[in-house]
Design goal:
By secondary structure, this protein is of the alpha+beta class. Helices cover 38% and strands 22% of the residues. It is built from nine helices and 14 strands. A hairpin with a 5-residue loop joins β8 and β9. The longest helix is centred in the middle third of the chain and has 20 residues. Ligand 2P0 binds next to α5.
Length: 328
């Protein structure tokens, strides 16, 4: 029987790309990062998630990109809903329907937009109207990078687990060219990859030592609108993160990743300011200024192994769709 009190809340959230990377967790509970990170939320890719708490359901149901998700894949989703039930007093089970308009779990930050959307939709559907930092904290416990996707523009996540906006989306002239190098799912997830790095990499301590300095310089460059300094810091952060991971045997690069990185170097040699960043997958995200976006995208499209290039720009916060109410 359908539940007359059932109320669906629908949320749109965007992925974010870390410019200063999060890689590694503090020991203990709460999924607290070992290093501070700073990201840009991206328009042009999105997750749309609806949550309905319904008396008629015997368990939570998850339909992700049209596929019923069960078992281990659903464990983190249940965990988030359980935390929302605990804080709201909501007792009903939920139906969750979520769609990405970009490849899932391939290093394109689908967990960031996915858990940001779920945290906002679930809290609102359970009738609790938390502020953005409280919603971010709920998202962080499931996936740390998701805390940053609650905010629009440039956001940071600190080593206490708190996330906040650092600057609005028009802070700096920026386009992010997402070079997609495979449509396959990644072989090793971020959580496993960073835990292996912490356990086995001789360079993990060096990463944890360097990351806060790179983050601080990048943050200063962003606030003073210095594109080349910000880009150089972003590339350093990605290479230091991957260097520490590689030394533990965690390799996310493929041939096209290296070829795209080489093309970015070549552009810089020719005075086209382009900087690369890479997440826990083989795609390369290239930071350029608006005036260079078309020419850089054309060049990257021709790199062997690059399947396509998406041009994205800084985007807005996670938001409840207008049919259901206002934003965060
Ligand atoms: C980041 N990544 O800062 C870094 C850079 C990937 C590379 O945050 O274990 O899915 O769920 O907290 O948030 C991806 O890791 O990891 C990520 P968990 P998450 O964006």
């Amino acid at each position: 029987m359908s539940d007359p009190r059932a109320n669906t809340v629908r949320v749109v959230a965007h992925p974010n790309i870390a410019l200063a990377k999060y890689w590694g967790k503090k020991p203990g509970a709460g999924n607290i990062p070992a290093v501070p990170s700073l990201s840009v939320t991206l328009e042009g890719m999105k997750t749309t998630t609806s949550v309905t708490f319904d008396e008629g359901l015997g368990s939570d149901h998850f339909l992700l990109n049209g596929v019923e998700t069960i078992g281990e894949g659903a464990r983190r989703l249940h965990g988030l809903l359980d935390r929302v039930r605990l804080l709201s007093g909501e007792r009903r089970r939920a139906r969750v329907v979520s769609e990405n308009d970009f490849p899932t779990a391939s290093g394109l930050a689908s967990s960031a937009s996915g858990f940001a959307a779920l945290a906002l939709a679930a809290t609102r559907a359970a009738g609790v109207d938390l502020d953005a930092s409280a919603v971010a904290s709920i998202a962080r416990e499931s996936s740390a990078s998701a805390a940053r996707s609650i905010f629009g523009g440039f956001a940071e996540l600190d080593t206490e687990g708190a996330a906040r906006q650092v600057a609005p989306l028009d802070q700096i002239n920026l386009r992010v060219l997402v070079c997609v190098t495979t449509d396959a799912q990644k072989s090793i997830g971020s959580t496993a990859g960073m835990n292996e790095t912490a356990k086995k990499s001789p360079f993990y301590a060096a990463w944890c030592e360097a990351a806060p300095h790179i983050y601080a310089e990048l943050r200063a460059a962003l606030l003073e609108k210095n594109f080349s300094r910000m880009g150089a810091c972003a590339e350093s952060s990605a290479l230091a993160m991957h260097g520490s991971a590689m030394a533990a045997g965690i390799l996310y690069f493929n041939g096209a990743t290296n070829a795209a990185l080489a093309e970015v170097r070549k552009m810089r040699e020719e005075n086209l300011l382009a900087y690369a960043t890479i997440d826990a997958g083989p795609h390369v995200k290239v930071l350029v200024q608006t005036r260079d976006a078309d020419i850089a995208a054309q060049r990257l499209t021709k790199v062997p192994g690059v399947l396509r290039v998406l041009t994205t720009r800084p985007g807005g916060a996670a938001r409840v769709e207008p049919t259901s109410g206002g934003g965060v």
